[in-house]
Design a protein that fits this description.
Three copies of one chain form a homotrimer. The first copy, chain A, has 484 residues and is an alpha+beta fold. The first copy, chain A, is 13% helix and 31% strand. Chain A is built from seven helices and 26 strands. Chains A, B, C: Residues 89-219, 274-447 form the Cupin type-1 domain.
Chain lengths: 484, 484, 484
């Protein structure tokens, strides 16, 4: 038996070792590998341009193939990323309770009423529509349009309509489950093709007594024949759209009927949408614009501590090297492609190959300060997701015209953003003596290094940035207009 | 060795699969199974009436046999449910740090001073007594009676007395551990039959120096012979009861000596009890009453985010289908039996059969939205517990006269309750067009379905509800008095 | 296959059992073992005096050998304790996200600018120096000296200098990671001998565009030759010290240039240091002094809920038996040795022998109230750490002159301290009747037991306390000056 024990121990250790070997390898390299710089991989799913995928395999990048269908029909879909801790149970433990989703509804469709056991925040990426909230006290509908940010509180029943004739209604969402960290479900009062009504769970006598209706009518409640063939997203007529739209509060008068909210609804009352694109940009110049709705400025986002960012960049622009102090951003590319470059001192050992350890199992984290910086370089394209953890320096280099991305910031209540280059960069504020001690350069060289960039936040780069061997003209210095 | 690795992998996977097969099966069924509706099982422990237990095996129900004795003697007991995550490490991860207890003391008994490394809230189910708090600054005793709710802060030394001659003093408690999530222990300054004094841990020289007493007296402090035979709950004399009662603040003058609290005790000062039954009911009519103390209205409950509910229902009444937005209620039946019906989209795979995975191990959660609703039907009787997770629609059907239950609400700071039937039901607030789109019924039929029930919150049902084959007279419609 | 399954199950169970047997054994003993009382072990690392180490093996004590080097050179070091949950995944789950570190810098040295993905609080144990904070908005340097407490917010770039000619600058720190519970890393803008610059992660084209500098200058930024040989702690000249010191705000005028903080830095702005030793002591008499900075009194400590305590005791003094209500203290001995005695009802089963279960795996906790009190007796010396969990009664007996220790309190927002002996002891406030019922002694004896000690908080003991067989003269009673 002693031998058996030894054997099994050995087996377990060997299995572990083997699986560690199979785990993802993050690209770790010393500086000066110019010949590899162009090797960003495609975002996968055919969105890239055929570069070698292997080198960009990293835990922070989720291609389109990572999404799982939550629901899909010809009229639209809801897709969700797996729990982040399925990718790395250690690296993403701090954001374990957050789930990222996208939703798309074809023109003239309706998503039936439902509630989740999760709070969520969404931003409208494209299109126009209506969201309707229904409670036992009231019924509030709001018109929503591109850039609108809405918080949907946990367990509030709500429905959506795409009220536009031609354009899909597309949303990005971040959900914060209420019952089970990282997991939530959807509850439907009415039956549809693939989804049961939650009234199904009640017995006939409870239902007849509850609704005070004869038994014959129960079928109308929980399983009417005529709805059987329809999915949760379904076509609606122009008249129905007109009626739904008329009832909805538009952005211009959105604060009207707030008064008939009953007092005991208290602070969980849902607020009206606010439009992120109507806000002043936090950073803006000819090369890019960044807008953000954060908990400090929008009380709706306060209890969840969520921020929503929206960045626009022109082709070949650079969102200058920076890091967030406390917030991890889940960024979703809405248009174009960008190269994300990020520094991480963490070593990643994926545990997807260790199915029986499950997501609750923490892989070992390298305890020593190795001193090495892992270079995370990824091309991220429309429909893909990139995670920017707190404290990690990163830069974004847009590679197509009109690069657009949204980001959901987690733990965003007290975040600050520190730029490492550009007119407002942190290093230019370092004492002369500290600069010399740290970088080994005197005041003159330090000035050259840290104050040559006159742009703030966004800066131009050469179109040939993918071939850095080619010498770049320093034409930027002739511009002297910082766009802050 | 490659073969060995393969083999071991295979073995692990097979073991996993087998144990998944052994796991609990929740009753999942399509609607229209009237012949099965009567199959609620007994609450176990002999409290039921002999129905088939198997069909109600579900993770949300804890029979009396689930409780473990924390302490038991002829003079009383303290019992505790296992950590909820022992039943399901996934379903109950959100309430992992909460423990449910009951305590019973015979007439004329005393529970010796002790403290826990946990905050807790209790409600008096029955009887009259005294709770005494002792700190290094002061000494506050309060008379407690049925319906009183008290918060006992972590590590405050306190004792109980049942001051009544005939009636047991019975409490239900929810504890929130301070040191180890989901675990706490009890600390006693004085020794009793089965419990050591914590002074036992100090060496003789520390004790003599601390108390400045000769060594001979140490025995009186930590192990006096005359106390050896007594448990932590022990008989007391009428004189002792009189003295304890006289020192205690009664409800009528409970705010008196609050002024001699020293200022540096700050916000952790324990408050006086408040009586839940003396509050106005939130919902009340001829068929039932629901009272609730929640964090919004009672500042004592604020830091723990705990609510306490108390429901009374007449025989054959129905607490109408509803759900809580953010709060999970741990309900404890104080009198009678009720049938709980609940809708859950979650699949449950119990891990009690997987002892080596332990409570820290998360079982896999079904990621896809299956669209299926699991029907949880359980008969819950006196002394049993049922968990009502946030967002899950449920109804309660009382089956005995004077059904009484208390509930501890977890994450209760911003909860709202949504009724799905009755005069205030959420569905009656749905737009006409949304109703048609969702339920496939027009305005007239919708009105019939959603507004026929004139009662709110509680409604009558027929006495024959357990035999739903028998046609039920719709006599309810002749009543027109909503009891809100 | 059935046999295989059985076999593997058996193997797993056996392995588990064996490893449980290998696990740490905590000393559990009934009272009255005077011959063992002197057996406290050395703190390890040669700091003790040769007592038997085995009996003090307990999870709460971390010797010097427990620290891992985060960085070390001839000019200083940063050392860190492993995650507490590596010692016991159950006992320390509540403090899993906290890490303890010490830092030492030789005279006239500089620790290069860096940031962590963690908030931290430090206290200066010895020496004088400067801490400089650099953001993209400003640059604030503060002079620090023994007793200063400083909060460094997550991701703020900062540097240190030891500005003294002769005395090392020594700090104790507690860190609260932002990204991964219990783990953090360090990020350096500039390269040093063993540590890469985070700019290393950016490609050449991004760097040249970001800084708007020619490629030739990049080397100066991320890897200048002249810095290669230097560690992160490096020698600096008197002139450099003078310059750094001049820029730094000293304690006397530390609130000056606070006004040029930009408004959008908001509440995460770092505050100035405050000196703990300049505060009035909370407890003080001839035998000891205890000072504490807690979240209630220092707003900087509020968001982390951290308290910092500092105790001084004369040789042979006793910090009287007491417990904290909600706070777990991580204490670090700065000078001398003390015997810690602590009562714990918890059983400890170390899981260091179970490497593949990892720190995420919870060992089983004994669920029943065993009634036993585990006696934790440990000699803790300079450079060692002892954990005092919430609710656990403990006493500290100084064994060398000038015993000094600091403590970081976790979950300290609402803590109260309850003394079990001394003039303010909790037991002396117990009702006469409750005292008789609990301790079986009448009023006269209770008075003798609980009010003979006229000192509060700190009391003298005999020099022979290590040999408790020798009768101790009760000379304390002749003093009548309580030092409160």
């Amino acid at each position: 038996m002693a031998i058996n024990k030894l054997t099994i121990t050995l087996f377990l250790l060997i299995s572990l070792a083997v699986f560690h070997c199979l785990a993802f390898r993050v690209e770790v390299q010393e500086f000066e590998p110019p010949q590899q710089e162009g090797q960003e991989g495609p975002g996968g799913g055919g969105s890239g341009e055929g570069w070698d995928e292997e080198t960009t395999k990293n835990p922070y990048h989720f291609g389109q193939w990572s999404f799982k269908n939550f629901f899909q029909s010809k009229d639209g879909f809801v897709k969700m990323l797996p729990k982040f801790t399925k990718r790395s149970s250690t690296l993403f433990r701090g954001i374990e309770n957050y789930r990222f989703l996208t939703q798309e509804m074809e023109p003239n469709t309706f998503l039936v009423p439902h509630h989740l056991d999760a709070d969520y925040v969404f931003v409208v990426l494209q299109g126009k529509g209506v969201i309707g909230f229904v409670t036992d006290k009231a019924n509030d509908s709001f018109q929503i349009t591109k850039g609108d940010v809405v918080k949907v509180p946990s367990s509030v029943t709500h429905f959506y309509a795409n009220t536009n004739d031609t354009v899909p209604l597309r949303l990005a969402k971040i959900a914060v489950p209420s019952n089970i960290p990282g997991h939530f479900q959807v509850f439907f009062p009415a039956r549809s093709q693939f989804h049961q009504s939650y009234f199904t769970a009640f017995s006939k006598d409870v239902l007849t007594a509850s609704f005070n209706i004869p038994e014959e009518l129960l079928g109308r409640l929980i399983g009417p024949q005529q709805q059987m063939g329809q999915g949760i997203i379904r076509r609606i007529s122009p008249d129905q759209i007109k009626e739904l739209t008329e009832h909805a509060t538009s952005s211009s008068n959105k604060h009207k009927d707030k008064k008939d909210k009953h007092k005991d609804k208290g602070s969980s009352t849902f607020g009206s949408p606010f439009n992120l694109l109507a806000q002043d940009a936090i950073y803006s110049n000819d090369f890019g614009r960044y807008r953000e709705a954060n908990p400090k400025r929008f009380s709706q986002l306060r209890d969840l501590g969520i921020a929503v960012g929206w960045v626009n960049m022109t082709q070949g622009s650079l969102f200058l090297p920076q890091y967030n102090s406390e917030t991890t951003f889940v960024t979703f590319v809405e248009n174009g492609c960008a190269r994300y470059e990020m520094a991480s001192p963490y070593t990643f050992q994926g545990d997807q190959q260790q199915p029986w350890f499950g997501p609750g199992q923490e892989e070992e984290v390298e305890e020593e300060m190795s001193g090495q910086v892992h270079k995370i370089v990824t091309r991220v394209c429309k429909g893909e997701v990139f995670i920017l953890p707190a404290g990690h320096p990163f830069a974004v280099l847009s590679q197509d015209k009109n690069y657009v991305a949204v980001g959901f910031g987690i733990h965003a209540s007290n975040n600050t953003r520190t730029f490492l280059a550009g007119q407002d960069n942190m290093l230019s504020n370092l004492d002369t003596v500290a600069t010399r001690l740290s970088f080994g350069v005197g005041g003159k060289m330090a000035e050259k290094l840290f104050t040559s960039q006159n742009y703030s936040h966004f800066a131009p780069t050469t179109p040939s940035h993918q071939f850095p061997e080619k010498p770049k003209p320093s034409f930027q210095s002739i511009f002297n207009l910082a766009g802050f």
